[in-house]
Amino acid sequence: MDPCPFVRLVVGNLALKIPVAARPSPTVVHPSTSPCFCKIRLKNFPQQMVVVPLIPPENAFPDGRQAHTIAASFHLTASDLDRLVSKSIFAGKPHMKIAIYTGRRGTTCGVSSGRLIGKVSVPLDLAGTESRSAVFHNGWISVGKGAKGDGATASAQLHLSVWAEPDPRFVFEFEGEPECSPQVSLIQGSIRQPVFTCKFSFGNNGDRTMGSRSMHSDPSNSRSWLSSLGSERERPGKERKGWSITVHELSGSPVALASIVTPFVACPGSDRVSRSNPGAWLILRLGDGTWKPWGRLEAWRERGSSDGLGYRFELLPDMSATAAGIVLAESTLSTSKGGKFVIDMAGNGNGRSMPASSTSPVCSPQSSGDYGHLWPFAAYRGFVISSTVEGEGKCSRPVVEVGVQHVGCSEDAAVFVALSAAIDMSMDACKLFSHKLRKELCPPQQEFI
Fold first, then answer.
1. Taking residues 95-118, what's their average pLDDT?
2. Read out DSSP for 295-337?
3. Within the chain, how many helices (H) and strands (E) appear?
4. What average pLDDT score do residues 378-383 get?
5. What's the predicted TM-score (pTM) here?
6. What angle (nearest 5°) sits at the alpha carbon of residue 388, between those of residues 385 and 389?
7. Which of 26, 242, 251, 428 is spaced 20 to 30 Å from 147 by Cα?
8. CATH top class, domain 6-166
9. Which pLDDT score, from 0 to 100, does residue 323 have?
10. For position 193, what pLDDT does the model report?
């Protein structure tokens, strides 16, 4: 398998120094009390807004004890690079533009909050960055009044680092909706190469599939994992259960599986799956000749004006189906517009405040057990996965990007494909029970309300 070139453009190590006025004034920013933030722009990409920490004017930064932090990142495809580099031939180099504000973020009566301190612009020479790293700025920049060095007033100073690094990824695309048992192709430019097939099924079909390949494991053990995890909630009423999707190599051998283990059940007196009682998928992969639980995906329907699909994904340490997991992603997707399911362990850390179009980067593991930085978290660094999810009622053919460093064999790639199918079908599993599901998702001789 050949990867596609991607480049991660990163802004990090932000800090702000603001000179303290000799005499108090209502128009002066007081670093001890005024929050600061910045808006980061790259042409044709969504604006990102992040907090900028204030430090005393006399302090050095970084001082060797502070960890380098990532504030924002932009992921550039080969076409993005071509567009930005070709434009620079005629219009100069592309620029990263950063506007720094003091005050609280948001709007009041339609007017943006925050007072502009100043703006900086960093030129970017992106040619060749798909194969080598490049640093465009690392250090302090004067901003605001006095930034031009006229000596009339002291200026604020912004510390930032801007760099680019290669971030190659494998790109897969479902040739149809996951519940229609499609092929999955590897994409590289205009070349499409089939690499997997998916088989959607109901009931215990997925369990029987596990035993279809000769291996050292006892298939009954695999079935017991699924049945034991789902037994607590299997009761009559409004529920969606029994869905599974198995990912096969082109030879026909199964290599990954996603199966509902906790039914998606309507909350009493309601027609929606609630956050307090989510449905769950178990993701399994083939390794060392045996099926092993790899991850668990919970999903529910958020209340309120957003009415989104809430989800939480966690890795299962030691490949144990009953162990406490390490949360790598937790966010919300728009049920009308869809978005992207993302795991980015070097993310910008503000993913939860970004629009529902995107994301859930989590920069440090969360765990109900004391795992710290032990496996499997340590195995997942940098960009891990991005998968597109369409909104309700739209044809969904997920496009899956996986960081090259996380794929060493076909089983590695297949488990991410299975996870992508699970998050995509969760949009239907969490559909209001007052709405009918498409026929492909309704088991034979059973009608969902």
1. 76
2. EEEEEEE--SSS--EEEEEEE-GGG-TTSPPEEEEEEEEBTTT
3. 4, 25
4. 76
5. 0.80
6. 125
7. 26
8. mainly beta
9. 64
10. 96
